[in-house]
What does this fold into?
Amino acid sequence: MPVITVENLQKRFNLEAGFFARFGRFVYAVNDISFHIGENETYGLVGESGCGKTTTARLLVRMYESNGGSVIYRDNIDVLSLAKKELKQYREKVKYVFQDPARSLNPRMSIYEVLVSGCRGSSRWPRSCGREQQLREAATAILEEVGLGKEDLERRPSEFSGGQRQRISIARGLLMQPDLLICDEVVSALDVSIQGQILNLLLDLRDKRDLSFLFITHDLKVACYFCDRIGVMYRGELMEEAPAAELYKRGLHPYTKLLFSLDNTGVKNSNPQINVTGCPFADRCPIATERCMKEHPALVEAGAGHKVRCFQISV
Ligand SMILES: Nc1ncnc2c1ncn2[C@@H]1O[C@H](COP(=O)(O)OP(=O)(O)OP(=O)(O)O)[C@@H](O)[C@H]1O
Ligand code: SF4
Ligand SMILES: [Mg+2]
It folds into this structure.
């Protein structure tokens, strides 16, 4: 049974001003995407800057309200209509590790406070005279699990390197024993050697715990290394979805091929999707035809667990 099932999810933002305003009023940041994440599965969401990865993640934890579609947790919890109390419980099970640890860790808090501040209202740690002691023990254990130590609890975020801060963010996400950890570009701001250390930490955690991941990155090669299945996203839509090994060997979509050819520094901005006619990739596609400008390709089966959105891929 999937931990999370996303169907036809949509989010558009108003375009009040600026260059694109004259083409239409909305940017379709997430445009009808569907995917699921299984138990203990790592699902990668990959695409260039601006394609809608963070918006998707935020919709999953209701930091944004969607404009359509559904998000089902486990077998029947309708996330998009949860009331406040149930939403809080859900957010203990689905944790979001933010893109930028420098900004998401409050510089005035000690690491202990950073880790436990979200836990005090939770049913896992009810108000009692022993609660602080239990929280301290849990915070120490989780910090050690991510490679830091008890002595770090009283230090401030600014005393740590970028890699260490990311470890702290991951520890904060894990403290509630979530089922699903959403990791949004958790390695992209780090040096390559530190990236490897954080990825190895995540691999260790995945082996030790019953944990599913939504792993968001612009780097398709990193995703292929880390993920079980991958969805390639462009202008708010899934262009291709496949098991990671299959995508690596037999990526079919012209955009997937382009992503493989980019090095880590070659990330371009994909312009937002403002016009939904035609293939979203048509203006950059080397094999586009006239049809691609006028018709919108559907995401169709291209093999076992493999789907692709392109008129020119014959299966
Ligand atoms: N709060 C917002 N208001 C208006 N537009 C937004 C908002 N958040 C995102 N967008 C737009 O939605 C699109 C998708 O943005 P999003 O942040 O989800 O992309 P991303 O794939 O996470 O990019 P990055 O790799 O840079 O983090 C972009 O065009 C962005 O400008
Ligand atoms: S549908 Fe057309 S424009 Fe879109 S990816 Fe395929 S060939 Fe390229
Ligand atoms: Mg983002």
Remarks:
- The pocket of iron/sulfur cluster (ligand 2) is lined by residues 254, 279, 281-282, 285, 287-288, 292, 297, 310-312 (CB under 6 Å).
- DSSP finds eleven helices and twelve strands in the chain.
